Amino acid sequence: MNAVADRSGLVEEIVTAIRATVGSGPVGLHEPYFAGNEWAYLKECLDSTFVSSVGAFVDRFECDIAAYTGAKHAIAVANGTAALQVALQLAGVRAGDEVLVPALTFVATSNAVAYCGAVPHFVDSEERTLGINSVALREYLNSSTEMSAGVCVNRQTGRAIRAVVPMHVFGHPLDIDGLLGVARDFRLVVVEDAAESLGSSYHGRHTGTFGLLGTLSFNGNKTITTGGGGAILTDDRRLARHAKHLTTTAKLKHRWEFGHDELGYNYRLPNLNAALGCAQLEQLPRLLDAKRRLFERYSAAFAPIAEVRLMAEPDGSRSNYWLQTLILAPAVAGVRDSVLAATNDAGLMTRPVWNLNHRLPMFKASPRMPLAIAESLEKRVINIPSSAQLVLETRQ
Amino acid sequence: MNAVADRSGLVEEIVTAIRATVGSGPVGLHEPYFAGNEWAYLKECLDSTFVSSVGAFVDRFECDIAAYTGAKHAIAVANGTAALQVALQLAGVRAGDEVLVPALTFVATSNAVAYCGAVPHFVDSEERTLGINSVALREYLNSSTEMSAGVCVNRQTGRAIRAVVPMHVFGHPLDIDGLLGVARDFRLVVVEDAAESLGSSYHGRHTGTFGLLGTLSFNGNKTITTGGGGAILTDDRRLARHAKHLTTTAKLKHRWEFGHDELGYNYRLPNLNAALGCAQLEQLPRLLDAKRRLFERYSAAFAPIAEVRLMAEPDGSRSNYWLQTLILAPAVAGVRDSVLAATNDAGLMTRPVWNLNHRLPMFKASPRMPLAIAESLEKRVINIPSSAQLVLETRQ
Question: Which domains does chain A have, with CATH numbers?
Answer without folding.
Answer: 2-33+283-392 (3.90.1150.10), 38-280 (3.40.640.10)
